[in-house]
Amino acid sequence: MDVYFDNKGNILNACIRNKWDKSVLYTLKTTFGLRGRKVTVFIDENPAPGRSAHVASLYWKDKTFEIFGQRKKLGDVRRTEGRFMKRTSLRRMEE
């Protein structure tokens, strides 16, 4: 699927659009406070029936993000990703 940001100057407040029919797929909205960014919300513009339109949130001060209700610290994900990639490459070498 070919998509693009409609506001390339500020992607924290933009829509992700389909390249072919220019329909909006997702919307990013960021709230700002006195000390900078607070929360960036990722919203699905065409959710499945019975599902929430809220997909993810990025909490800038806490350096955490929440995807479908699961909250993780950014540092935890970085460490897990490094270990996972090393394990994957070792398994491929053994096979």
Could you give the topology of this structure?
Blueprint: E1 3-5, E2 14-18, E3 24-33, E4 36-44, E5 54-59, E6 64-67, E7 70-73, H1 74-94
Antiparallel strand pairs: 1-2, 2-3, 3-4, 4-5, 5-6, 6-7
Number of H- or I-type helical stretches: 1
From the spread of the alpha carbons, the general shape counts as globular
Q: What share of the residues does DSSP label as strand, in percent?
A: 35-45%
Average pLDDT reading? 83
H and E order: EEEEEEEH
Provide the spatial order of strands within the biggest beta sheet: 1-2-3-4-5-6-7
Which structural class should the secondary elements be placed in?
A: alpha+beta
Distance between the termini: 33 Å
Relative helix content:
10-25%
Number of strands: 7
Quick structural overview:
This protein has one helix at 74-94, and strands spanning 3-5, 14-18, 24-33, 36-44, 54-59, 64-67, 70-73. It is an alpha+beta fold.
